[in-house]
Amino acid sequence: MPSNFLFATWAGGGAVPPVLSVARALAERGHHVRVLGDASLRDEIVAAGLEAVAWTTAPQGDPADPAKDVIRDFEARTPLGAVARLRDRIVCGPAADYARDTLAELRARPAHVLVTEHMLLGAVTAGEAAGVPVASLATTIYPFPTPGAPPPGPGFAPAEGAPGRLRDRLVTRLSGTPWVKGLPALNAARVANGLRPLGSVVEAFERADRVLVLSPRALDHAGRRFPDHIRHVGPRLEDPAWAGDLTLPDGDAPLVLVGLSSSFMKQRNLLERIADALGTLPVRGLLTTGPAVDPASVRAPANVRVVAAAPHRLALRHAAVTVTHAGHGTTVKSLAAGVPMVCVPLGRDQIEVAAHVRLAGAGVTVGKGSSARTIARAVERVLNDPSYRSAARRMASAISAETATDRAVVELEALASPNRETTEPAGRTGFAG
To answer: Which pTM does this prediction carry?
Structure first.
């Protein structure tokens, strides 16, 4: 039986394609799907074959244009400053606006299930107030502490001995601190919609009936345990509609695919250093700048082709190495193709993702301020040591098994079913492996 799904998302760069991938998969199975999002996403939503509905009072942004970026985390001086911008400009500050717009859409055209990008706590609030089942899509490694693993964020390896366990306890205790200042605005939105206030913002992330993690379980720590309502459903591997066609560089030297953020993170200088590094090696480079950087502004040697975009999933069939900021999308596509990586994290979740690549043995990490010489040495190391490709291929096998069934669709259809089991209230107990 077809169901009605309302998706809620925002112009969050790499978080957009996996959300739209899930929405498109539901539409292809005959369900009625519409997507509430920023006006800048309209073309991408329509290209996915979906109905676009624009926010009216919630923030509107375009991360490909620094002047229109809502968060502007590239202006933050510290990682905590970047989190504060996300908190105040998307997650908590405008929670009442997101709730108002989502409720208006639900009242105008009811839905069986509301599916929100994980950061939109205002939309989650609206779903709870409307009594509609809510699924939250986490588009990276699950970003909050759970038992059996180090707290995510800093890229810690699993604790060893008492000092490591003490480290984990202290960092876990501190991990909620950056969110404290967002609680009044979030609770104001909840109270305005007839809901009780919460004790923490982190608790609000647990209010969804299902949190579907669009990341390989195999990429996370093996001993990590999750509450029953947090379920890994595998990554989305499709390329966005704006990726265009593939034209490979001439020749038969090993191909190095370069892809940094699809949103603005002051990456142009780093792109040039990567291009310079590849210019010293016997390789072909395919460097994709993304929508936020003009490819004509990136100086590159003759063996490096610079383009605005290319379908990474297709390019990876030919690649020997990926050089990436360790954004989750590029990372999982590379691993799914069995391609090892040189990770150059720029911020956000990228330090954590790069750490998991390194712990899996599928790549190395260098700093974002590294010289072209350092980057070249890292690329040579990954190219010449077969252990990295072997580890990436092991991860590819695991991802293939995880994505053999579209578990995100299965979970959402079950949530929409009138015969679904009664969902346990938020604040659940009981952990799954």
So the answer is: 0.93
